[in-house]
Amino acid sequence: MNAGKPLNPTRRGVKSILKAIGFALPILLGVPQAQAGAACVVAKRLGDSLAIEWVASPEESAASAIDRGKQKLIDQGYRNKGQDVHAQANTELQHAYMVIIKTQYITAVGRTRTSYGCGYSTRSAAGAEQAAVYDLRNYSWGWKPEFGYEVMRAFRY
Fold this sequence. Notes:
By secondary structure, the protein is of the alpha+beta class. The protein contains 3 helices and 6 strands, in the order H-E-E-H-E-E-E-H-E.
């Protein structure tokens, strides 16, 4: 039983269709969509990080930030045999805190290793630093928190 206004499925259906059209129409017509993003790109050789570049801007998409970061490293000469230039972390957040961390430690087999972490947070620099530590651990399996790290850069874009 319906106590109150009678149910009108046609009206609800029209609203759903209008929402879908409002979402899809700008995409289909090629209307520029708001985009923003950031990326950290790392040059590595045999698991050791050689250099890092980052790009962050409200006018930058994550994909273009990755491309620009890679190009910066390639322009610095990090595209030799045995070297790998790749995106380590990226986001599509329009505005965020961004923290880049660096660590140097000795691996279990006695090799000196440099690694980086990059993190983003909409809430705080501390949250971005936590994300950077998580990123560091994902890319440097031999790193332990007791090895420590330094904050290279912390900012908001």
